[in-house]
Every structure is written in C-alpha cells, then in structure tokens.
Amino acid sequence: MTEGTDNALLERFEQDIWSKVPHLEEGSETRVVNATPLVDMTADFKECAKTVFKLDLDNADLKVFGKMDSTLLTGSIKVRPAANIINDAIVTGKLRSGQTVIEATSGNFGIALGLLSKLGLNVIALVSRKLQEGVFEELRNGNTRTIDL
C-alpha cells in the first residue's frame, strides 16, 4: 500500500467484492486462487460417458468438478480482471472515494466495473447505441450511467 491509499475504500472493496472474486493469494509457501466457484459434475459426467461413449462408470470411484464462472458476481469471467484492476488502483492510491470511473465497453467488463457503485463510486459506461437492450438493463441495474456513442 502507498501513502495515498484510501483505507476505508479498500476495506469496503475487500469485504464486498474482492472476497467474492477469484484472485491469486500468495503465502510464504503457497499460491492459491481464492474463491474459485467449483460445481460437482460427477453425475453428469458419468451420464455423458454412458450415453455418448457407452461406458459404465456408475461404480467408478471418481469426482469431476467444473469451474463455473457464470456463478461469479455479474455472471461473467470479466469480473476477474476488473477486480484486479480495481484492487491495484485502490492499493496504489489512484482510485479514491468520490471519484468517477469511465469505461468504454460492449458489456461484461462495464457490468463488472459497475460493482464499484456498491462502494459509493460513480461509474460511467461509454457504449454503442447498437448494444443489446439486456446489456443496457444490466448496466442500469448496477447503477452504472451509460452514454451512447
């Protein structure tokens, strides 16, 4: 952290966003990707093996897990880089309470940045008029102001 770090903003960010988004945590002996959403897909895998490949794995001692980024905040993998960029900006003092973040986006990254509104920051997304209405809705639901280009 630097002298200019907004510690109150960093604390809110870590509690409300960072703790819920997969990110690399480095300890003295380990490196762990925290909060990665895994779903047990064993039953589906066995059914697929039986149906598609005619393999009977019912008695096989195995577990199959899938990484399901659709279960992340915002439902998109784009929340990962957004959270890392936000974390770096807060830690280095580049992003502080009361500031506005402006992003040109076609959707998911802007939606992920919209999480900043939960921290009391303003987010403006510069978007194409041709963007799908569903994306506009998600941006607005996240309290992100949109400006059509």
Automatic annotation (TrEMBL):
Domain Tryptophan synthase beta chain-like PALP: 60-134
Biological source species: marine metagenome
Pfam family, one: PALP
Name this protein carries in UniProt: Tryptophan synthase beta chain-like PALP domain-containing protein
